[in-house]
Design a protein that fits this description.
heterodimer; A: 587 residues; alpha/beta; Rossmann fold; 9-stranded mixed β-sheet; 23% strand; rod-shaped; B: 112 residues; alpha+beta; Glutaredoxin; 5-stranded mixed β-sheet; 3 helices; 25% strand
Chain lengths: 587, 112
């Protein structure tokens, strides 16, 4: 037995999830790993106005339209006409479904003032009504909205509780997938503890007001026999019903594309390995006010539409027309792309909606338009719509979502003060490429500089380039980099002139030195010549001296010979005294 | 839902002098002949005989036979007695075992 149990433990748990019933509500099925538990009741609870009824109705309506599963709504609070009118405002033709025999809305009126209770009773009437409606249209889905109203209408709670238990059991036995709504209670999920009876699946709806902005949230509190997302998911109710926003790919599974897309600015592409951004990457353009962030974005958009790709711009500060017009001033003509349907704008004030609403709207717009590139200009404007952690959470979801679709996204953000390499929204780690635009103030001018702070997966330039906006778009120039730092604008021009002057001065100096040397050489030659002349002169003198001496010696010898001749004649003629100076010495 | 159910919309008009449109029009909704619905009918009959002799009409509706009728009178509990006439409409749910409450419910006795 021990072995057997070990074998069971050792075997990887087979993932056999319970059968699911898709709601068709965008995002919800994703969170619930396919949908609600099929054939079981699901409790949807929340306070007044949180959208319980709507969720239930959408479940029925989408069931009837998308999955061919007719539905019955037992409404305890609103009449059929009211309910149908309410969902009509969300674009659902419930009346058409009723007429087509796909939907039954039965209003159960419980008016305590009309009702007297005496003795024992049960809720067979309700069961029969429901059963009849289910049989009439072959319903697979049921909405009970809000059965807790029974507690207000009837005083015998004991009977009620027993009957509710029986009702849910009965629905299960019939294999009906039911949504049961319940009002949120103090400290409990529902006021009358319906969660006691419906324990398979519980969804909690909630709404909050943060900074005067309304946000709806949804959470799957419990889901027996199934995995499910556990977070608070923002959701939205608009003219197309409910949209729940799941945190898409927390797993970082998106494929890394090796393709490049141009930034639309040749100089910038050059800084990025000469090719541009990786497709599917996220790019952040940060800078202080007026540094040309939007213009960089516009170039990017222009490059995309020129490649016949679709671009979607979310503008939070300018209207569509303003955006297009302003970009004309730097020579970017976007109007044709708008007309061709390659470019779409979604302009809204950041404060117009809550953060989640923005995100959901963006998701929807992206899903509809299927763009290749997305520009969000600027994300810092969203700071009005939520707290920093919420915004970075939202951006994380957005970045992940875009990555999962392989969409290249460019975000602009405004930074303030001196801390340029710090984003208020803490999204720098989310983006792959971060380009910083900055003002460079010098010589009474404000010029723009651009540099690539980071770019994942490529050897990017480390230079600061001067960034000039002209009527022909953005031009990147090699900025002057010298001992005095980065020089831009006229300071750069002055510096360049100064450099040229210094250059020619140097040439002059060399020329001067050359001449000097020449002179020196000439002087040297002259000296050498003079010396030679002197030496020659001396030599000549010496030679003369030698010649004279030779003559003298010769003369002396001759004289001596003459003297000797004469002495011999004297000796013959007498004794001749020889003095000490009498030797043959020359003097 | 056994098929032996019968007496659809049993109409019991009591009192010899009962007019075509009696002053009291009562409808009792039941679901099959359960002991509880039989008791309700017995209790109702007794009370009517005691307090409304000759002025009433009781219609018994078995919802197992006629489920559609439940919607019209907004029936959810069984048994339910509906006072159609005199107006306003009143509903008494339960087996009608508490005569006092039934009389109050039918406005035959002032509320305590």
């Amino acid at each position: 037995m021990k072995n057997a149990s070990r074998a069971i433990l050792a075997r990887p748990a087979r993932r056999r999830e319970i059968p699911k019933c898709p709601t068709g509500i965008s995002g919800l099925d994703q969170i619930m790993a396919g949908g609600l538990p099929r054939g079981r009741p699901t409790l949807v609870c929340g306070s007044a106005g949180c959208g319980k009824t709507l969720l239930g109705m959408e479940f029925l309506i989408r069931g009837a339209i998308q999955f061919n599963e007719p539905g019955v709504c037992l409404s305890f609070e609103e009449t059929a006409a009211e309910l149908i009118a309410n969902v009509a405002s969300l674009g659902f033709d419930a009346q058409g479904l009723v007429d087509a025999g796909k939907l039954i809305v039965d209003y159960v009126q419980i008016d305590r003032s009309q009702i007297e209770e005496t003795g024992e009773y049960n809720l067979d009437g309700l069961f029969l009504r429901l059963d009849h409606a289910i049989q009439e249209i072959g319903a697979k889905r049921v909405l009970l909205d809000t059965v807790e109203s029974l507690f207000a209408g009837l005083s015998n709670e004991l009977v009620l509780r027993g009957e509710l238990r029986r009702l849910f059991r009965w629905l299960k036995d019939k294999g009906i997938t039911a949504v049961v709504t319940g009002e949120r209670g103090e400290g409990t999920l529902t006021r009358h503890g319906l969660e006691e009876y419906i324990s398979d699946c519980v969804i909690l709806l909630d709404h909050r007001v943060n900074n005067a902005v309304f946000t709806r949230r949804l959470r799957v509190v419990k889901y027996r026999g199934s995995t499910h997302g556990t977070n608070d998911y923002p959701f939205l109710i608009d003219e197309r019903g409910i949209s729940v926003l799941p945190v898409t790919s927390v797993e970082l599974r998106h494929a890394a594309l090796r393709e490049f897309v141009s930034s639309g600015i040749p100089g910038l592409d050059e800084m990025l390995q000469g090719r541009g951004f990786y497709r599917g990457n996220s790019i952040l353009i940060s800078g202080t006010a007026g540094t040309g962030k939007t213009s960089v974005g516009a170039h990017f958009v222009k490059a995309a539409v020129d490649r016949k790709e679709k671009a979607l711009v979310f503008a939070f500060e300018e209207s569509r027309d303003q955006w297009v017009r302003n970009m004309q001033s730097i020579g970017i003509e976007l109007e044709p792309a708008v007309r061709k349907g390659l470019l779409r704008h979604d302009a809204s004030r950041p404060t117009a909606f809550g953060l989640e609403m923005h995100l959901v709207r963006m998701h929807k717009a992206i899903e509809e338009f299927r763009p290749d590139v997305v520009v969000v200009d600027p994300i810092s404007a969203l700071a009005h719509a939520g707290s920093i952690s919420e915004i970075s959470g939202m951006l994380l979801r957005l970045v992940d979502y875009l990555k999962s679709l392989g969409i290249t996204a460019l975000f602009t953000t405004m930074v303030q003060g001196s801390e340029l390499e710090y984003t208020d929204l803490a999204i720098s780690s989310l983006v792959d490429t971060w380009i910083l635009l900055r003002d460079i103030e010098s010589g009474g001018e404000r010029n723009r500089g651009l540099y690539v702070l980071k770019s994942r997966g490529m050897a990017h330039s480390n230079q600061i380039r001067e960034f000039a906006l002209s009527s022909k778009g953005i031009r990147l120039r090699q900025a002057y980099l010298g001992p005095e730092g980065v020089l831009t604008g006229s300071a750069r021009v002055v510096q360049e002139a100064r450099e040229r002057a210094a250059e020619s001065a140097k040439l002059w100096e060399i020329e001067r030195r050359k001449l000097q040397l020449e002179r020196k050489r000439k002087a040297l030659d002259a000296q050498v010549a003079a010396l030679r002349v002197e030496v020659d002169a001396e030599e000549a003198e010496l030679r003369q001296l030698l010649a004279q001496e030779g003559q003298r010696l010769e003369a002396a010898r001759t004289e001596r010979a003459e003297m000797a001749g004469s002495r011999r004649s004297e000796a013959r003629a007498g004794a001749v005294q020889t003095g000490p100076n009498g030797g043959g010495r020359k003097r | 839902m056994t098929p032996q159910r019968k007496k659809v919309g049993r109409r019991i008009t009591a009192g010899r002098k009962a007019s075509r449109s009696p002053e009291w029009d009562l409808r009792l909704y039941v679901a099959g002949q359960t002991p509880r619905s039989l008791a309700a009918f017995r209790n109702l009959k007794r009370i009517c005989e005691e307090h409304l002799q000759g002025k009433y009409r009781i219609e018994v509706v078995d919802l197992l036979e006629n489920p559609t009728l439940a919607r019209g009178d907004q029936i959810f509990a069984i048994p339910t007695l509906v006072r159609k006439l005199p107006e306003p409409v009143r509903k008494i749910i339960g087996d009608l075992s508490n005569t006092e409450r039934v009389l109050v419910g039918l406005d035959l006795r002032a509320r305590a």
